[in-house]
Amino acid sequence: MEVEILAILAELVLEKLAAKTWEQIELAWNVESQRLKLQKTVSALKELLLEAEQRKNQGRQQLRDWLGELTDALYDADNVLDEFHYHSLQRQVESRGGIVEGTVRRSFFTFTEPTFSYKMGRKIKKIRKTLDDIAADWSRLCLPELGVDMGIVQRDQSHSYADPSNVIGRDHDKNVVIQHLRLWTETLSVIPIVGIEGIGKTTVAQLVYNDPWVAAHFELRMWVCVSKDFDVERLIKQIIDSAEGGNCGEVSMDEAQIRLRSVLMEKRFLLILDDVWNNDRGRWLDLELFLREGEADSKIIVTTQSRSSVAAVMGTVPMHELSHLSFEDSLSLFTNLAFDNRVQERLPSLESIAQEIVERCGGVPQLLKTTACSLYSITEQHIWFSKRDTALKLRLDGLPSALRQCLALCSIFPTNFRFYSLRLNQLLMAQDFITLSHPNEDLEDAGHQYMDILYSRCVFQNREQDYGDFFYVQIHNLIHDHAWEAAQPEYTVLNFHRNAHPPQTNIRHVSLSEDEWPAAEGVLDVLRALGRANKVRTILCPFVRVQTIDEPFISAFIERFKYMRVLDLSYSCFERLPESISDLIHLRLLSLRSNIRIRRLPNSICKLYNLQTLVLLDCCELEELPRDTKNMISLRHLEITTKQSTFPELYDSNSLRFLGIVGCISLRSLLREGQSFPALRTLFIHSCGSLVSLLPSIRNLTALRTLKIADCEALDLLDGDDDRFPGFQTLWFLVIVNLPMLVGLPQWILRTATSNFLQRVVIEACPNFTGLPLAVQQNITIRQKFKTRE
Question: Does the keyword Protein transport apply (predicted)?
């Protein structure tokens, strides 16, 4: 495991050790002293990982062995902490009378369970000893002394000059930004230039800054490289230095702001704030206050990597996002730098390799420049070959550690697999691969941002939008192959037709290939292929022929892999899920999608208190959900197909985020009386032929963002419509497809359309629909495909 990713695992363990739930756990099981000691040990190891990152190219085998031991120990710690969390959830469920606003009354924990307390205390003590021994081993690794400073490397200060003759493919971007500068404004205007690292934001700003029209139009031009420290006093002094061409010196903040206002007074100025990371609007307003002294029509250009925070906090006009260079422009830039126009020295063989290198650089100018310059004056073919993979590695090494975890998980899917953003998000959540930037952020929102970044960096491609904010993507084959190599040895794909499988003990994520496994021998072959591995966290079986997956197969997996977080049995064809499914206390995701034979689920499944995602789509013979489904206290995503006529009772809490109801042909009412899901973001209703009305139960979904209704022939949205329901003031997307009963939209939807959130309405295949009021059409983006009545 990469050192940075291992540091994330250590941080995850520390977060769990610091969680508020420990106050209740310690009252119940008296493990406070052991927890604090373990917390101290993990903190010390996290510090050692910072040094290990600096030494990763030194003493490689020793360091690799040490990191491997640490990885196993941290996973063991995570499992034990997760077991504590499970039993805490179990107590909440078993003490419903003691639940107050989702937490258990402290009086409930006034007793202890000596057996459990002793058992768990020993587990924590054992793990702590293992980690202490690993920490002690660090000093015995005999690694060379570091010859470099271990401090944080700061970005070089940028400057305002660029030679246009050395810039390729950015004329359009330059012209777009200048068009914004040409628009006269009465107040200070801020134009964000957004893009990933190395894409050319600074270069475009330099081209604009030195354009003849810009130089003539603005009386004063200033350039400041901001970087990560958005210190208002420092920035004021730097702006003064840039404006006056001197050194502001050691003056007080009050003297500095007076001097800045004097410099800008009655001047039309252009200020470039390069490489801004600040997302604190308060700090920006503190600086902007002193920049208002300039003349009307003054402009500020901000370059930033953050499209969702910095641009939103500072921008006054729509941001301009830089795209990757085309292959032709990339090749031109690369060859100019690698060959320096020495046409006579070019070798045809090198030109063909150059094209492969350019493809691996993904249209990122900085990466093209770095790789090309490293090859300048080199004509040895084998060195050029080596740079093909180096370019791709540099491209992916720029990804944050959390995104490399996501990419590693994607590598165990087949090449050219179409990933659905919803499914991938569910997998990332199940493995704790998503890091929240602030406490109030949703896991789903953070995961969605991960995928946006991967797409913007051309890791994902061929994006195809689905309803709402969900989409399909693929991974470029070259990146898939590189990710697969980097993911070893924790990730593996098992294929029955391989001659041999190396027995591994540290495999944690497994997918079974789409090649057919013999039903009679399948279980033995899979277990044999996994060797002595017993700490597997992911098992994906959606690519196996259905006859392989049967009850003995599943029972064998459950018995051996107690630490599973993900069990995907999509497209399987067994009749019963074993009662032992409840043994998987760490399970976060269970998918039985498209099982056409299963009729019932064991009630023991309701003991999966950690379960976040349950997918039962297209289980067309499933009669009903178990009676204790309401005990699944952590459920965030539920997708069901059942024959029951009433909606199952679910845990009434803030956990549920996504609800998909598909093919429930007997379902007559949406939710049970009085049920409320105040955190539900997405509701998807499809092919529910007996459903006639959404009201009144839908009124309780107060946080709904996406509503999609399709192929419900009896559904009348006007049924029950009245003025008591003001609509959804948080709705972003509304999709209505094939509703024959739809004549017009109810008032609760029309009132929703007047909110500031609704972005898009899609109405398709509704033959009796008469259309939308003009006022609504002007307020939102609409895609209509319906026949208007004569």
Answer: no
